[in-house]
Amino acid sequence: MKRIGEPILTADAISLAFGGITALNGISLEIRRHEILAMIGPNGAGKTSMLNVINGFYHPQAGTITWKGETRRHMRPYQAAAQGIARTFQNVALFKGMTTLDNVMTGRLLRMRRNFLWQAIHFGPAQQEELAHRAYAERIIDFLEIQAIRKTPVGRLPYGLQKRVELGRALAMEPELLLLDEPMAGMNVEEKEDMCRFILDVNDEFGTTIALIEHDMGVVMDISDRVVVLDYGRKIADGPPDEVRISPEVIAAYLGEQR
Amino acid sequence: MTQGAPDTFPKLLLEHARLRPDRPANREKDYGIWQSWTWAEVAAEVEALACGLSAMGFRRGDKLAIIGDNRPRLYWAIAAAQALGGVPVPIYQDSIADEMAFVLDHAEIRFAVAEDQEQVDKLLAIKESCPLLETVIFSDRRGMRHYDQPFLHDYAKVQERGRELARADPGFFRGEIAKGSGEATAIILYTSGTTGRPKGVVLTFDNIMSAAQNAISFEGLTDHEEVLAYLPMAWIGEHIFSYAQAYCAGFCASCPESGATAMLDLRELGPTYFFAPPRIFENILTQVMIRMEDAGWAKRKLFHYFLGVAKRVRLPILDRQRVPFVDRVLYWLGDVLIYGPLKNSLGLSRLRVAYTAGEAIGPDLFTFYRSLGINLKQLYGMTESSVFLCIQKDGEVKPDTVGRPIEDVEIRIAEDGEVLFKSPGAFQGYYRNAEATVETKRPDGWVHTGDSGFFDADGQLKIIDRAKDVGRLEDGSLFAPKYLENKLKFFSWVKEAVVFGDGRPFVAAFLNIDLEAVGDWAERRNLAYASYQDLAAQTAVYDLLQGCVERVNRDLAAEPAVAASQIRRLLVLHKELDADDGELTRTRKVRRRIIAARYQPLVEALYSGRPTGRIETEITFEDGRKGRMRAELAIRDVATSLPMVEPVAFKKAS
User: Which of B67, B70, B214, B347 fits as disulfide partner to B266, beta carbons 3.0 to 4.6 Å?
Assistant: First the structure.
């Protein structure tokens, strides 16, 4: 069975504001090695902002992030990526004109060691390196069962498959932490079931730690080990799905309070 | 090894490993690359698995269930079971757990090889109800890490154990193979069957090898053929084309990456020998046509022009008739510009022989492929006959026959029109079902196919229907509903057709329009319509369909046996026949009796001579709610064609 380990990432008292609007208000949370953590909350609760802080896209006004024992205020997205944090986006952000295979290969870019010149002449070591990366990309394609669309430009694919390709690109980075922003939005039931299985398999086979944002409560309760609930930029609950489900504060945030 | 020619598949395997050790025997596309195994490598893999199985207690006469998509490892499992004197029993990989339980139980299966987690899960779900099942071997380890049941074994580990055993006792594998003989059971294949439980067809090595060998010499196949193994392994056709004939002739069978990529892999592989049911040829054509609609103006013009040339010129060339010089040049040009590139992009340019069977194929569809220069032919056969009974011979190909009986096959038409055969490929019997065996394979040696057919003037067999559906008109002439319905369905406008006539004075038809095709047709003519029901009731649509039926009638008039079955009256149904309403089976075959009962008032109206029929039906929505639908439908009289030749009357069987 999988062992949930020590915290791999700790966010401490993160606050983020855009002008006068407070998006995150002193949020602390930790993500533990090998777990699947779900972040839920009503619209505008600050879920995506929190992901953006974690992978360095937003810089919080206050608070620190500790990633694998290293504490810092600011991290740039490319640093996050180089250190093993990969993500997918709420609105699919793929290279539409490129094929599935090429999109997945872009996930390998950070791991390519040969410089631009070597790549350009594409000979000897550069070619060897590309072959190795291609082999890895093919493992991902096999894993996600997208062989049939390997050579199809992603712009022509249905939405559900684009989401899967995006997951493939993130996986190609061999991340330690995978951030998924609404991986199941806009999918039908069957596509959701597939995606759930892939997320569980990734977690299981590669041992990847996963933090995801999702609105479908059935999915969240089924697949996550721990749930963090945000509301108006505050954290109102943090614990196993069964505990969070019955927390009065969470019910109030979702259904409103009786006065 | 025994003297003389090899009489089992494992013996053939050893022979190929000796004669052509470095030629490819299997390929599989994996991780985007075609991986191949030579005959020598396959022999080693099969030996390892067979020895491993033996070490786990697999004995002579044991059955080995094989469940999964086409994978070399599963084909090796067939050979391994046969090498040990066991019997492989492939099971349809998409069967639900219940159906699988029936076969496992009925065939008394102790050992199973499953492709992956999905199949293992199904086996685990039914393990309780199949007490005989002892051991499950899985090929793909993905997702299997947390399965700790002691009876689950990894294919690779079983082979590892087998290799150890083979090192300790190098003569074991060959010794076991030498004990096998041609009369032994080679395989049991369960036929799906539209009625009742599946039946296990028992075939010996002699059965399969004689049929496979006869077809190989009929077409002159060599060890350089390429085939794509992509149809279900539990189906006799797949077993014959990708296993039996590959072993007999020594050619290579290649497995696609997955079911979804089969057509892409086809293109990369470029097979020389290919089999597909009509449905697949239809899908390929539809895709070509859709892509051509999106092509530029010039390309589209060129495409349609040369397609016309091909239709006009190619068939006379094939039949060695005189063709004007200009047409020959045009055809040659078309080959350079259109047919060649088209075949290449479909992966059909290296094709020497392609077969279609299983269902009637539309003449237009059939002619399309043939006019491109693809040697597409029809054949007739079934599981009980190890496939090959009739094959069309080059130069004698017609769209509506299935050819003449091949060597060693005898075919007779019974008095009631049923097709009977005798063949060395004829099965031994249904496994543990003596009653059904006697009913099909009579003591006099003739096997009853259950199909109704006749020989045409050239001596080619023509299959018209399942015998039990064939009836009589009031005047005693033959009425074969499926034959008529297929003719109607060849028109793209007609989605479904149901004809009535058994015990009636004439034939009448219900038609279902194809919403997409007729909708498109209506739009091009600026016909407005609000719904399916509205479109189906339009006079213009009725005119369109009446034209189709009249053309069918003209065809029928030319065939004495069915000329009396011309369709006199038709109506277009206001709703699509639907499996949810029980009107079709899940595989989209019409359920005649149920439809006749549900639409009883309309059937009566067809035969009453009234110009309309009124109907109220209950319909089921997709979410399970029910509603009622009321309609008044127009009925059309259709002109029949002359000359009406005196129909041939078959006598009823006594």
Answer: B347
